[in-house]
Amino acid sequence: MQNWRDAAQRNLWLADAMLLMVAIIWGSSYAVAKQALWFYPVLGFLAIRFGLTFVLLVPQLRGDGRRAIRPGLPLGLVMLCIFLCETWGVMLTTASNAAFLISLCVVFTPFVEWAMLRQRPSNLLFAACLMSLAGVWLLTGGMAISLNLGDGLMIVAAVLRAILVCLTRRLTADREVPPLALTAVQSGVVAAGCLVLGLSLPGGLPALPQSPAFWAAALYLVGFATLFALYVQNLALGRTSATRVSLLMGSEPLFGALIAGLWLEERLTLTQWSGGLLIVVATLGTLRFGRAMAPTVGESRAQTAHPGASVN
User: Fold this and answer.
1) Which residue from 54, 85, 196, 288 has the least number of CB within 10 angstroms?
2) Where exactly are the transmembrane stretches of this chain (predicted)?
3) pLDDT tens per residue across span 245-263
4) Are 30 and 276 in contact (CB under 8 A)?
5) What is d(CA 304, CA 122) in angstroms, rounded to the nearest whole number?
6) Nearest of 227, 267, 280, 296 to residue 95 by alpha carbon
7) In the structure, what pLDDT confidence band is assigned to residue 292 with cuts at 50, 70 and 90?
8) How many angstroms from the chain centroid is the CA of residue 293?
9) Upper half-sphere CA count for residue 310 (Cβ side, 13 Å)
10) Mean pLDDT score across all residues of the chain
11) What does the alpha-carbon distance between residue 156 and residue 178 come to, in Å, rounded to a whole number?
């Protein structure tokens, strides 16, 4: 019996460590994406990133994976809108702001469920929403508020992520849709949509970038922030509780801000740090006490293929 308990404890700690690693990877993805955008425009970057993801996951569409095609097409269109907002948002704001603001999707989700599924959030969720709004106010300047276009796009992306999670639940309810197959379809839609949009612009897309830094960033987002992260999340959910997963993944915005500071030399003021921490606390409160438990940032990213990162 004691050996069994020891083994269970080791599995729990291993799952926690792996989830924390994913939180760090997703946190880093904002800075990685911002760096990639130095070398190639948004539409081309997304077409490459999700095209590679689709190619790697296309074998998942065999057999039962075909069930993902019908729900995956409309969900992929929503995801296309999300990543366009997120990627342009990351380009136009700081990576640290992007990391904090996208986490608002966890707070928005219960309210989208209320609108779509008629499930009223608890009073604690209303309090969490007010706390998040206060956090956004502080993060974007406090008394001298200066919500720029990039910040606004990240907030729109957070709302769209909440919509995508609820729509995913609706379209996949009572259907055994393999998650990797669903990610494959969504990735294909995003890649195709960005390619069509990019080629339709005057001058089209530029030649493929030659910089090793760009390709390293793209492969990192595909390999680690998408495929590895999805595998770890699915593995961890079989070894630990959803609440524990939520709490660990809720640390992603903090890692995003820290890595942006170390890598891109972005600096947050004390007021901005206070705002970011309020958003994180509100997010964790939503995950812990929400009546209709909102998905974690990680869960929403997985269901949106998160590929990594939102733009990440």
Assistant:
1) 196
2) 12-32, 38-61, 73-92, 98-117, 124-146, 152-168, 180-201, 213-233, 245-264, 270-290
3) 555 666 778 788 888 888 8
4) no
5) 26
6) 267
7) very low
8) 17
9) 41
10) 80
11) 28
Query: What stretches of the chain show up as alpha helix (H) in DSSP?
Result: 2-36, 42-57, 69-92, 95-102, 105-117, 123-139, 149-172, 179-200, 212-222, 229-237, 242-249, 252-263, 270-289, 297-303
| Of 145, 147, 189, 127, residue with least CA distance to 164 | 189
Place of tokens 């709490």: 247
pTM of the model: 0.81
- In three-state secondary structure terms, 80 is helix
Tokens of 25: 């990877």
* Amino acid in the structure at residue 158: A
Question: If DSSP codes are grouped into helix, strand and coil, which group holds residue 97?
Answer: helix
CA distance 281 to 127: 11
Q: Which of 209, 249, 265 is nearest to 27 (CA)?
A: 249
Residue 13 to residues 10, 136, 154, 228: CA-CA distances in angstroms?
A: 5, 33, 33, 18
Helix axes 179-200, 229-237, angle to 10 degrees: 150
- Are 19 and 236 within 8 A, CB to CB? yes
Tell me the residue type at 12.
L
The CA distances from residue 230 to 40, 64, 165, 219, 275, in Å, are 26, 19, 16, 15, 29
For residues 299, 304, 310, 311, the Cα torsion angle rounded to the nearest 10 degrees is 150
Phi, then psi, of 307 in degrees rounded to 5: -45, 50
Q: 92, 222 in Cβ contact below 8 A?
A: no
Structure tokens at 84: 């366009």
